[in-house]
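Narrative progress, year one. The postdoctoral researcher (J.K.) led the effort to move from monomer predictions toward full complexes, under supervision of the PI. The following entry was the first complex the group processed end to end, covering 652 residues in total.
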Amino acid sequence: MGGDHGPSVTVPACLALLERHAQLRLLLVGRSDALGAIAHPRAELVHAEEVVAMDDPVEVAMRHKKRSSMRIALELVKEGRAQAAVSAGNTGALMAIARYVLKTLDGIERPAIAYPLPNVTGGATTVLDLGANVDCTEHHLLQFAVLGSALDMALKSRDKPSVGLLNIGSEAIKGNDMIKRAAELLREADQKSLIHYYGNVEGNDIFKGTTDIVVCDGFVGNVTLKATEGLASMVSTILKQEFSRNAFTRLAALCAMPVLNAFKRRVDHRRHNGAALLGLRGLVFKSHGSADQLAFEHALSKAIDAAEHQLLQKIQHRVQQAATLF
Amino acid sequence: MGGDHGPSVTVPACLALLERHAQLRLLLVGRSDALGAIAHPRAELVHAEEVVAMDDPVEVAMRHKKRSSMRIALELVKEGRAQAAVSAGNTGALMAIARYVLKTLDGIERPAIAYPLPNVTGGATTVLDLGANVDCTEHHLLQFAVLGSALDMALKSRDKPSVGLLNIGSEAIKGNDMIKRAAELLREADQKSLIHYYGNVEGNDIFKGTTDIVVCDGFVGNVTLKATEGLASMVSTILKQEFSRNAFTRLAALCAMPVLNAFKRRVDHRRHNGAALLGLRGLVFKSHGSADQLAFEHALSKAIDAAEHQLLQKIQHRVQQAATLF
């Protein structure tokens, strides 16, 4: 029901995914009048009267909308009727309700939001946390490193994904006290082969692809993600403005179209859509609110991938191994 | 002497500026063999035997290079022989030596690094702090707001530059405890007409140009700056790769060249080169280490502008007014 476009995007994306995956079964949770358009033997409608609005405060979503589509979808995961939940809705509400309904894994104090940012190697760097936790300790950062490693091992089939600690310089002496303690803890975890720790990385390393995973507190992660989204949007706006300035530039745009399209495909963030909420006793994926059909399909695909690769079991296993350091 | 290219960039930039500004006098501080190329009636060579290397730890620069070109240039400012100092060298060393030689203004605990990031309106958003201070209190953020406002008023002739507080959401309830206290303090300063406080802004607002100034702690600021530099560099690399893929794409590049050049001019960060070290008893500007001649000219121009517009006196005035809240 959620996202900027609601069922007009999510329903066609669901139908496309059902076509592509012969084993896929979908439970569509929401108002039957809005989701009625879907008629597929492997799609089942689960009616929910209430909907969490994109701007609902977390308290409203938690206390006053106990039969919301979001809540019911997460309960289906808890009951084992669904292997994963996907939402394009209100991120804060999704995280809070997921934490309340599903609970965190033993040893994990706070779930994290992990998102892949495209890098220049053609791959993507998994960055976490992206906004769930504004005040982090070094132990939270270690938990993020373990969660992110399990995610990359399961979904990207990486053997030993490398973890970078986001800092303001590559030297070990840089950063505030918490970051220095986190670096020590990550080094210890590396020595015990619980993660593969690379060392400090800087903001630009995210887009260089220096490491597979970058860990940071949710405040820094969220500001960084939004700043880069802002820059990307500015670059795209200015390119469009310059190419549509007059008849000559529009002709140039025509000539350059195949190249510009190839460029767009390579930097298309829709291909990476779908943030993982990690550290919960169930699989939950968050699509960007502004996702179009293609982007929402990618978020659904990730959830399918995660269920098929038994991400939850793999995370539980890694967390158990590392728990003595948490 | 500093920067990635040293005098091969800084000397020609100095000569170009001397041509353009008939009143300008330059003191070139460094090794006479390296700076000997400059011969101009309004340029004076000040010999310095030692040079702070780009990778010298701050301690080495401070304690073991007491006659470095950086140190002597800052002493010329302190003695009133120079109205401003410009360096393309080691940022950490420049900040530490500037603080030691010049001292901070009464009421300012920590100097800040302010840098303008281009935004989609065609202007630039002044962001501070960008890395001088990794652990900030709400009082530091207020000081940054006052320093940044004085800078924009002097250099951009803005009457009431607006200040945004970098946060993870626009609602007042967002952020960690320090950020919430900072928001209160900034609101109080606004009520006393000491600054013009807009409220919370998010990472993307920097590039939207929502406010004239964005304040944040140096850790968040530095990570954000480097992440956006990393993204910009990735976009530029991929554009180049796509346009040079084969004969057809190279032809397309030829057609699109005037438009791509116009685009490049608009996003050209060299036009904004020159970070201000604010809160000191003297004017100090830091050029990006990788600056080419054009970029270094811009950093020099800013220093000239700041001296002509009496930035230091204006900052002192604003800081005195606001000191009761610090």
